[in-house]
Amino acid sequence: MSIVIDKSGPFTHGPNTVSKTMFTVLAALAPATLYNLWLFGLPAILLFIVTMAACALCEAACVRISGGNPDRALGDGSVLITGWLLALSLPPWAPWWVAVVASVFAVCLAKHAFGGLGQNVFNPAMVGRVVVLVSFPLQMTSFVSPKPLFTPGSPGLSESMTIIFGRGFSLDGISTASPLGFIKTELSKGVPVTQSLSSFPSLGDMMIGFHPGSMGETAVPLILLGGLFLMWRKIISWHIPVSMLATLFLLGTIFSTIDPARHTGGMVQLLSGASFLGAFFIATDYVTSPVSKSGQLAFGFGVGLLTWIIRTYAGYPEGVAFAVLLMNALTPILDQHFRPRVFGRTRKGEPLPVRGDK
Amino acid sequence: MKLFPILGGIHPEYRKELTSEKAIVALPLPKTLYLPLQQHMGAPANTTVSVGDEVKKGQVLAKAQGAISAAVHAPTSGRIAAITEMTAPHPSGLPQLTIMLDSDGKDEWAEPMAAIADPFAASANEIKTRVAEAGIVGLGGATFPSAVKLGLGGQHKLEILLLNGAECEPYLTCDDRVMREFAAQVVDGARIMAHALGAPKVIIAVEDNKPQAVESLKAEAAKTPNVEVVGVPVQYPMGAERHLTQAVTGRETPARKLTADVGVVVHNVATARAVHQAVRLGRPLVSRVVTVSGGGVAEPKNIEVPLGTKVSELLDFCGGISKATKRVISGGPMMGQPLPSLDVAVVKGTSGILALTQSETNEHASSPCIRCGSCVTYCPCGLVPVEMASFIRNDKLDLAAKIGVQDCVSCGSCSYICPSHIPLVHFFNYAKGKIAALDRERRKTEQTKSLVEAHNARLERQAQAKREAAAKAKAAKEAAEAAAAAQAQPTIEGGANA
Ligand code: SF4
Ligand code: SF4
C-alpha cells in the first residue's frame, strides 16, 4: 500500500472525463448522421469516411510533430468531432480532395497551429468548411437531391467511387442548389421570395430532411433529438441553441412580415441550411464559445443575428459557418464582459451593502 | 418553511450508507493520548501542567491564550508523560507542541465545573465563559473557538441561530448520528446558545437525506417554542455557512462580512451538544464523534473518540485498512485534508477519518482545459474558476484577485466536476496563500518603513536639538566672551550696556 499525501482536496472526482463528453456528443450526432448517410447513399458514406480519416491522420501527425502521444490525443475524441462535423457540413457528393483540404485546414491550422485542444480560437470544422467554400465555390454549392440507399437512383459502389474519387458528379447534370441557394439565385434574378417559395420543398419535406443540402444538416428532428439528448446529459445547456434559434426565427418572421418579397419567414430560416446543426452542435463548441451562461446567451444571439444578415445580404446563401467564426473571434471579449455575479457582491464586484439595521 | 435556491453546487456520490445506520460506539480507552496545543483556529493554548503530573479526566492541561484560542483538557485520568514536538494532523506535517498523556486506566473525572442550574436565567457572559472554559470549538471542522462566536450578540442585532446539520460532505454521518441519538441535547444546547446570542429564534437545517435526524429533532423541537427544524435540499456545499444562511433565510452575506451582519449566526449541531454538556453537566470537551469510513476500512463505524487518540489506533478498532487504500484523509472527501501519517492524533476538528481506494478517489492525470464551462456553472460562489486558474498559472495573481479568487470557499465543486481533472482548488489555495503572504509582507514593509521613518525623525529631532543646544551654548559662550572682552576694554556701547 502506498498512501499518497501530496495534494489537497477534493479527494473524490465526478465520473466526467473529456473523452466521455466527446463520445456523448458523437452519440448524439449519430442518428441524424445515419439517416442522412442513408438519404444520400454510398457516395456520402465514402466521403464521410474520407473526412474522418483525414482529420484523424492530421491530428496524429500534428501531435507527433509536437512531441505528444497520438494515441492519447485520438482517444480524447475531440478530433473525431471535428471530422464528423466537417463531413456533415460538406455537400454529400463532394470530391475527396475537397474533404482532405478542409481537414488539413481544420486540424492542422485551426487547431494545432493555435496550440491544440482547448487553445484554438476558431471552431476547427467551420474553418475547414469556410476555407473550401471560398476556395472551391462550385464544388461546395453543388448538391444532390436525396437518393436513398437501396432505392433505384442510388449509385452503386463503382459509381460512388467515381463520384467521390473520380470525375465527380456535377458534370452529369444532376447537381442542384440547396433551398436557400435557390432562393438567393432567384432573388438575384429578380424573382421574389414569395414566388420561388412555390417550387420550394414543403415544410414537411424540410422537416424530414428530404431536400438537397449538406450531408448532415437536413434531418432537423433527429438533430433536435441529439441536441435534447446533450442537454439531458448536461453536456450543453439551452442558452446558445435557444438564443441563436430564437434570434433567427424572430428576424425571419419580422422581416418577412414587413417585406415578404425579399425575406424568407422564420420557419424557413430555422428549417433550412445548418440552423439546427449549428445551434446544437457547432455554436455550442466548448472551446470557442463563452464559458458563462450570460456570455452564451449573448453569443447565441450574435450567431443568430449574423447568420440572418449573411443569408440576407451577403453573397453566400448559407451563413452559419461564417457567423460562428465571427462570433468565435468575440468569445474572449464576451468572456471578459459576461461573468456571473459573485456571491456576496454586486455586479460591479463591490461587496453587497450591509443591511441598514444594526 | 420557504427555502431559497443557492447558486451552483454539485451532487457527489454520498456513500453515507456505509455508516449511517451504525449507532455511535465508544472507543476502548487508548493507552496514550496525544494532545496538540493547537486544535483550533487562533493562538495555541498554554500548558498549565508539567511532565510527571497526575491529572484527572476533564482537568485543564492548557489554557487559552489571547483573544482567539481554546483550552485543552485531559480526556482521561493519568500521568503527563511528555510535552514534546510531534507531527500535527495537518497536511504540512509540521511538528507541533503536544502533551502526551499516559492513561492510568481508571478514567476518573476531576471535580466537574458546577452545572449552570438555569442557563436561561444566566447572563450571556456566564454562558460564554463556560463555553470557553470547556474548550469548545466549532466541531463541524472549522474549529473556530465557539465562545468567541457566542459573543457576536454584543455587536450585532441577531435574529436567528442557524444550527448546521446539513452534513453535506460524502461519507460523514457523525452529525447525523448525533442528531438522531442526542436530539434533546442538541436542541437544548442550541437554545442555550441562542439565549447567549440574544437571538430570538433557532432554525436547525438538515439535508433531506437524513429523514430520521429531522424526525428526532422535530419531536424535540415541538416541546419548545422558537425552535424550527427544516430539511434543506441535498446539494453540496449546502453546509457552507453563507450558503446555508442564504438557503434558509434568503439573506446573502456581503463579501468580507460575517453572517452576523445579516442577523444570523451559524453553529454546528455537534457543537450544540457540547455546549449542552458544558453548561448542564459542567463537562469540558474531551471527546467527539468521528466517522471512520471509506472502501479501505474493514468495518466502517461511528465512534465516540477521546481526543488525542492516534488515527492508527482508531483504524485498528475498525479492522484496519486494506491494501487497496490510496489515501487516508481527515474530514470529508471534498474539503478534508490528507494526513501526513497515521501516527497523528484525532483532534477537536476531526469529523471523519476516511480510507479511500482508487475507485473512490477516481483520480486521473489532468488534461488540457476544454473550456466546457462546468466549473463556472457549478461554482456556488459565482466565480469563473477556469479564468482564475489561467491567471494564476501565468503568475498574474493580481488579476486572479480582481475576479474574486479570495471569495472562493475552496469547496472543491469545480475540481470535482472538471472533465479534464484539473486540480483547480490547488491553484486557488496556492493563490490565496500567496496573496495573504504578500499582503502580510507589504504591511510589514510598510510598518518597518514607518518605524524607520519614525526612528529617522527621532534621530533628526535629536540632532536638531543637539545642534540647537550647541548653537545656544556657542552663542552663550560668545556672549560671555564678548562680555568679558567688553569688561576688559570698555567701549561706548559697553557703556551704554552698563
Ligand atoms: S471544468 Fe475544467 S475543462 Fe471545463 S472549463 Fe473548467 S477548467 Fe476547463
Ligand atoms: S472551490 Fe472555489 S472556485 Fe471552485 S467551486 Fe468552490 S468556491 Fe468556486
Key attributes of the depicted protein:
heterodimer, A: 358 residues, mainly alpha, 59% helix, globular, disordered N terminus, B: alpha/beta, six-stranded mixed β-sheet, 36% helix, 17% strand, binds iron/sulfur cluster, electron transfer activity (chain B), 4 iron, 4 sulfur cluster binding (chain B), metal-binding (chain B)
Structure notes:
The complex is a heterodimer of chains A (358) and B (498). Chain A has helices spanning 18-65, 70-75, 78-88, 96-111, 124-135, 137-140, 157-165, 179-188, 193-196, 203-207, 220-232, 239-258, 266-271, 275-282, 293-313, 320-337. By secondary structure, chain A is mainly alpha-helical. In chain A, helix 1 (18-65) crosses helix 7 (157-165), helix 5 packs antiparallel against helix 16 (320-337) and helix 12 packs antiparallel against helix 14 (275-282). Chain B is α/β, with parallel strands linked by helices. Helix content of chain B is 36%, strand content 17%. Chain B contains 15 helices and 17 strands. In chain B, the strands form 4 sheets. Chain B has a 6-stranded mixed sheet with strand order 1-14-13-17-15-16, with helices on both faces. In chain B, strands 2-8-7-4 form a 4-stranded antiparallel sheet, with no helix packed on it. Chain B has a 4-stranded parallel sheet with strand order 11-10-9-12, sandwiched between helices. In chain B, a hairpin with a 7-residue loop joins strand 7 (78-87) and strand 8. The longest helix of chain B has 65 residues, at 424-488. The radius of gyration of chain B is 30 Å and the shape is globular. At the A-B interface, helix 1 of A face helix 6, strand 15, strand 16, helix 10 and helix 13 of B. Residues 379-381, 383, 385, 408-414, 424-425, 428 of chain B line the site of one iron/sulfur cluster.
